[in-house]
Amino acid sequence: MVSPLLHMSTLHNHSHEPLPVLPPRPPESHKGDFGRALLVGGSRGMSGAIAMAGLAALRSGAGLVTLAVPSSIQHVVASFSPCYMTHGFAELAADENVEHVSALVAELQDAADNATAMALGPGLGRGPAVGKFACQIYQQIDRPMVVDADALFALASNAGELSSTALPRILTPHPGEFKLLAEAFLGKRPTSLESQIERVSAAAQLAQQLHSGNGVVVLKGHETVVTDGQRFSINLTGNPGLATGGTGDVLTGIITALLCQGLKPFDAARLGSHIHGTAGDLAAETLGQVPLIATDLIDYLPAAFQELRPRATEVD
User: Fold this and answer.
1) How far apart are CA 277 and CA 285, in angstroms?
2) Would you say the pTM of this structure is higher than 0.90?
3) In which domain, by residue range, is 223 found?
4) 3-state class of 188 per DSSP?
5) Domain count within the chain
6) How far apart are the first and last CA of the chain?
7) Considering the domain boundaries, does residue 149 fall inside one?
8) Which of 153-162, 202-211, 274-283 has the highest mean pLDDT?
């Protein structure tokens, strides 16, 4: 049975409220004070996605960042930057048995025990074994988690085996991924997401369906929607130059870093979307929209955070 869309009047609009503020950084701070991020992803041919997410997490203030990737690409991912750490795990074969998948999840559980927040999905790849791997991490690891890219595909492909979770989760689908999730979990693929009312209502319904009060859906695109099923916000930063591969991976890294620094899921998603779009706007002012690429956003993250200085994100 397909549930009707939520009526906008049942949702509280936070779009015009002040942006969340990062806690000030005391003079005696050390790296452990700003969180440990663990980002899981990468596969052969897609090492750049997880590397960009990791670089964005570093530039967004996470104290320590570790990228968990298949061992076959660990050296490639490590070569992108000396500033994050890497953890290699065995590559999943297409016909991997359940026991091996569970063993890999247990290995990552050990790594996650030291993490403040996680991300799952950039460049992870697809297939039955990868799907089970992603879904077990999603449901079993008790850390705030940003879920993106191939992990979203895994959720949609295994919807019948998943139950609602109260663990803090932030899903960041683009419209195509959102339609797959809506079909899998709401019983109907939206025919159009052009109307802001439809986008907000459908995203809020998905947040309610997948989570028990502690989940957020970030429906990316022009005027990105951020909602936890009870409230929503529309992000007004960003430009068409962001419509290029890898920019979503950068957003994943930004939001993960904000979770590491103590923001709640809705606040981290809202502020992260704003910073991501601001970096894109600053990059486009200098480079133009047409030549803009995802790594440009990482380069402009420092300036985007500087835009927030009147909100006292640091102690001088």
Assistant:
1) 12
2) yes
3) 8-15+32-304
4) coil
5) 1
6) 56
7) yes
8) 274-283
